[in-house]
Structure formats: structure tokens, C-alpha cells
Amino acid sequence: MTPRTLFEKIWESHLVHEEAGQPSLLYIDRHLIHEGTSPQAFAGLKEAGRKVRRPDLTFAVMDHSVPTVHRELPILDADAMGQFEALARNCRETGVRLFDMNSRNQGIVHVIGPELGITQPGQTIVCGDSHTSTHGAFGALAFGIGTSEVEHVLATQCLVQFKSQTMLIRMNGRRPRGITAKDLVLYIIGRLGIAAGTGYVFEYAGEAIRGLSMEGRMTLCNMSIEGGARAGMVAPDDTTVSYLEGRPFVPRGKDFQVAADHWKSLASDTGARYDRELDLDATQVVPQVTWGTNPGMVTGVTNRVPDPGSFTENGDRKAVESALEYMGLIPGTPIVDIPLDRVFIGSCTNSRLEDLRMAARLVAGKHISAHLKQALVVPGSRVVKAQAEAEGLDRIFTDAGFEWRDAGCSMCIGMNDDRLPSGERCASTSNRNFEGRQGKGGRTHLVSPIMAAAAALAGHFVDVREMNVDGE
Amino acid sequence: MKPFSKHSGLLVPLDRVNVDTDQMVPKQFLKALTRAGFGKNLFYDWRYLPGEIPNPEFVLNLPRYRGASILLARHNFGCGSSREHAVWAVMDYGFRVVIAPSFGDIFYNNCFKNGVLPIRLPESEIDEMFRAAKEAGSYRLTVDLESQSITDSQGRSIGFEIDPSRREVLLQGLDDIGVTLRHEERITQFENRAHPSAPLYDPASVDVRITSGQ
Ligand code: SF4
Predict the structure, then answer these.
(1) A124 lies within 8 A of chain B by CB
(2) Is the minimum CB–CB distance between A135 and chain B shorter than 8 Å?
(3) Spatial separation of the C-alpha atoms in residues A341 and B36, rounded to whole Å
(4) What pTM value is reported for the model?
(5) What is the pLDDT of residues B170-208, one digit of tens each?
């Protein structure tokens, strides 16, 4: 048999229908929904008199607009309340399981899917959210869809899809100390550009990737969309299997063994062909900091803010000029000299227990800079929050001057009250530094959790490798 | 969905690369429960000064582009967030066609669900259009999806490529859920087959400990 890639194996085993010259009909194993992109889909369904085909394969959660403080109080944002009520009603009427904002399992959709074991290797997973790519860390084919497609999946449990091309990204060598999955993925996007992945599914491989925990792999796959790829994946291995064992929605006992054997067989075959292959050297990666208004505008912490004149393409030069103007940065400024107003540790990219642990280790016994207006830690889920509290991480953070919040998207997108004010500068562990992303006029620098923690202590960026970190 | 076959209209050039969907419809408008009325939010932060006063410098606000229905953009248009609100805003503003060298994948897909035609053209053609749009007082195009051609007010005509099945969807204004449901039997067959890729563990049998604190 011809050697196949992980992507091809999943694609082929989910084909419901194929016709020459037509996109394929692909079966969807898991459909995740949230309050932001689902109301119009349910409304459309109702209008057409259609039913949710598989409520048992659909999981809903409130995450984007939920408050991260005082959830017991009435919600004053009427629009957000409208979203919550609509989601609750839609789930009740259609039998979809909902983790509402008072559920012990509530959290960011891309954090709770894996955490509950809803996400499993070999599955097709979709959600009306572009960071669905996160779930590819398990060797699943997971991608974001629009609301019309959400409606389509609700009605048919299928999607009409064109087959993507595949790109293998091999990170060779070991990840140096102080370098996290976040640095690897920012480095990759900086090298490739933010559109190189358009039309592709990324598969990440190589020693540095194999060495990542599941949390790290999720961080990596999460940002595939920032490189233009709808999906990113890592082949399932022992790390994947042991992460999943015992999680609520994962098979148990003998069934688990059967599943685990199957999962491991999904890895790309030797000799499988990709449309594009790329080799990068992980040993060369230094801590990354974005300086512009998209994730590809990134550099090492040891560098300086670039000069627009050094970009040869006219469009790029203009984009850099307007990015620097928006960011209020002067070309040539050393990255470590950029002062900060706020720090945000959270989002579906970096809000899992491992992220919080590494940040906590760094700030333990210290205090955030007096120049900071705010430093937020927002756990990705209530389960993460509870685990972190059991380990005393909340105390470490609050003693250091951080605010410890309830779970949700929070200042990654600022749909609740957690917003970055205009003109202020934030070191953020999230995934998008687009204009206004964290708040209108807000200036976002994307970094790893340890870089954010170190920056919170100093009040400006610092090279985390100069501090005592283990880089996990 | 409204079918699309031929459209004539005024073109407005938006000379920025990598326009993301956060820019097209900022977060504060993502709490709506319907698909309607997003046109006024399109490019909100660029289009308005504080107090929702139209920014006289933003290209969409220039009097010569009033009533434009064709948007000319730069590469990677519509990248980022999957929010379909971006296409609803484009549509509601009055655009039926968006022309760019390349698009974000999800935005491109979303266009076809809403009767908006996204056209990819080579960078050189796009440059040419930007030039023409800036020089002409009013640069109008006729876009014919059937013949896959664009003709401008100066009589210049070029062709464009589009996947034939996508073209069909727009030409017929197909309800693609309806089309998929024609395969319902196959879907059921697929579900009844024990398919190895996704061990379906019955979630109902698992305790996820929901506490309803309400
Ligand atoms: S944390 Fe941010 S990127 Fe992730 S799902 Fe929420 S809003 Fe989207």
C-alpha cells in the first residue's frame, strides 16, 4: 500500500461521499460550539425546520463573553446575556450538552475539549472558531468553520470539504532551555509568514516536537491558523495516549487498549509524501516577542524593533510602517527596552496547568513591577483553576501581585470587561496581536508564559534565559 | 441564498495587506444573535472617529466611492478569525464581489455561503486595477461569473479562475445543507458502519459532574 500521511488516513476514513470534480462530503466526529458563533446557526436550522442530527456528538460551552470575576452576580451586559440565554435555550431544545458558565467543567472550548477527552486522535473535529486547530495536537483533523458551516454540521454531521495540501514542518534538534512551544510556533510563523499555510494542513514533526508535552503541542497547533493553515497536527504517540487515559469521555479498560493501539497506528507512514516539506533548527530558537500587528511580525528578544526600510517589498514596508505607528514603537529600539502597562497570562494558547506552573515558578517569592497597571492570570478552564489552586499556584500569583481570575477567553479578545485600554501596551500569552484585538487602540506583544511572567516582574521585556528557568 | 451570475458596479480600492476579520468586524459586534445589519460595522475602527463620526480619510468614506459594490483588496484578505460576521458585513454594506490576490481560507469559504463572489487574480492584475481605480474618477467593473470574466469601464477584459463546483453553488444560489441531505442515506450508512477512526464512547455514560450553580 502507498505510504500515507496522518492527514490522508483521517481524511480517507471519514469520506461519506466522493464525486469527481466535486468537494468531498466528510463526516464530523465532534462538533464544539460556543455562544459567539452559534446563535445564527441554530436560528437558520429552526427557520428551515431542520433538526440537530447528532446532539450526542455536539458539545457546547460558554467562554468568549463570560465574566472572569463575580460570576454569581447578575450579568449587566445585555448583549452578552442574550448570547448566553440563546445558547442555553438552543441546547435545551435540541438536547446538546452544555457546559454553562456555572459548570465545574466550564472553560475555553479548546481547553475543555482535550481536558475532558472529547478530543481524541483520528477524529474530525470542528468548531465555529479558528483556533480549533488546537485539537490537532492529538493527531486529529481539527479546523475552524464559519457559522453557515456550523449550521451545516448541526443538520447533517457532515461538511463539504476540498482536500487540503499538506506541509511537513520538522523542528530538528532539541529545544534549548527557556524556549517553549510558543517560541517555536512564533518562530515558525516568523519564518514562513502568516499566509504560507493557506490551503495547507501542517504536520509538525522532529525531535523538538516529539519532546513537547500535550500542553506544548496544543500551544503549537493552536497557532497554525496564524500561519494561515486551517489545521495543524502532531502524530499520536505515548505522550498522547498517557494524556488521554482516564479522561471522562475516553474509553476505558479493554476498549482503551484497542483505541490506544489504533491511535498509534495513525502516525504518518515512512515514505509518505507531503506537498511541501520544511526543516527548521530548534536549537537556534531564542525567546520570541512580536513587535507588530500580526503574529508574523516577530523577532527574538535579543533583537531590536525593525526598520521599515529593511523590507524590500512595497506592501510589506507600508504594513510595517503602519504597524509600528499603531504600536507606538521606534525602529531600532531594543526589544528589552519596551516598557509595559499590563500582562495577560491566559487564552486557548497558553492557559493550561503547565503554562501556569511555569509562570508561577518564575514569579514565586517575587513581585510584579510597580510600573504595571495590571497583571492577569486567567486559567483556561475551571478544572485547570481547581488544579492550580490545589497546588497553591493561585497564592503564588496573588502574592506576586497578579490577579487570579475565573476561566474564559477574557483579555485575549476583550468581549467581557477584561480589555486592554487604548494606547496601553500588554505582554500577552494569547495568539493574536491584530489592531484592537485586546481592546480598541491596545498594543499587544505575543510571548510565552515565562516571558510574560518575567516581563511582569521587570516591567519590560527581559531575556528569560538569563533567569533561573527550566524551560518546560 | 441569493444566486450570483453577473454584477456591474463601482470598485473601491482598499490598499492594505493582510486585512484580518477582527478589523472587518471588531469584537463588540460579535454578540448579535442575527445575521442582519452588520454593514454599518464593517471596518469599524478605520471607518469611524470617536463618536461614530465617519473618518473622512478612510477610503470607503470618500464621496467618489459612495455606493461601491466591488471591493479591491491586497493579499491574504480576510485572514484570522473564522467569524462569518465579516462576510455578513461585506454583504450588508452592499458588496457582491471582493477581488484580491489571495484570501484567508475560512473567509473565502464563508463568502460562498452568502452569495459573495471572491475572485483571486495575479498580483500584477491587482496592481493594474489599483492604478486604474486611482486614476479614473469612477472605476466600474462588470463581473460575469458564467463566462468567468471581468470587464472594466475602459473596455479592458480579463478572465479569472474559480473551482467549477463553487461556481455552481453561486450561480444556482444552492442551499448546500439541502444538497448534503440528498445523501442522507449514505450518512446513515456511514454512521452504522463501525469506523475505526473515532471510537465513539457513549458520552452519556460518563460523569462530567455538572454543577448547575443557578
Ligand atoms: S481564548 Fe482567544 S483565541 Fe482562544 S477561543 Fe477564546 S477568544 Fe478565541
Answers:
(1) yes
(2) no
(3) 38
(4) 0.95
(5) 999 988 999 999 999 999 999 988 665 555 565 554 445
